[in-house]
Amino acid sequence: MxxxxxxxxxxxxxxTFDLGGDMPVGRIxxxxxxxxxxxxxxxxxxxxxxxxxxxxxxxxxxxxxxELGVGLVDTADSYALGAVEEIVAEALYPYADGVVVAxxxxxxxxxxxxxxxxxxxxxxxxQAELSLxxxxxxxxxxxxxxxxxxxxPLADQVGALRELQEEGKVRHxxxxxxxxxxxREARGTAEIASVQNLYNxxxxxxxxxxxxxxxxGIAFLPYFPMAVGELAAPGVPVAEVAAELGATxxxxxxxxxxxxxRNVLPIPGTxxxxxxxxxxxxxxxxxSDDQFAxxxxxxx
Length: 300
Prior knowledge:
seven-stranded parallel sheet; alpha/beta; 15% strand; 10 helices
């Protein structure tokens, strides 16, 4: 059961966030998972296994994202077996000031559609070295544990990332798909700069994590941020609020996340230049207290 959260007041003050305390980024980032497979495949069916057929189009989207002010680009070693990291480097290297590239390790890909948590320290170190090579950098801005491996002590998994940080190969450490207790436990081993969980207006199982990270100044990166499903149907408050804002339902879902807490940095992904511009434009929307409350109540 989710609750109806409170939020900071509306206004332009929340358009940026200092990720890790020293990397200011715009609060709408770009997630690269959709830069895989073939055009037209719904996200729910994509296996994230093959690189995009239209590589030039993927490069163009990434470059346009930065032109529009996107500062956070999120990727992973497991997206098309590292091919997406290579595309990020092709598009953005040398990285401009203000561009933060985040990647992840900790999910092995033994086959299409298969994701296996693998958090052995030697594996995480190996994947970090491969990511450094593919991204053409000597230091990963934000290196995230993609999933907690239940077969390896969390302290060992986070400890491997901390060692990389101490060696100057990782600037900040993040986690993905974790609960509050796991974040607390990980913080006993290393400073945690971010948490990336599935969270959107329709799927609110991580309310406690949002609240905890907000209180602790840790960035919260919701993935699949616009997956509102039936909540976007005509006559439902999402559509009503969208009409009031003069926005799309997707922009409204993003605006709700931005109002949810100052530390929330949605990372929507798209292969469309038009949708990319629409997503970034959600930063310009100001959602009222009443609109926020009406949408928050949808979560029960």
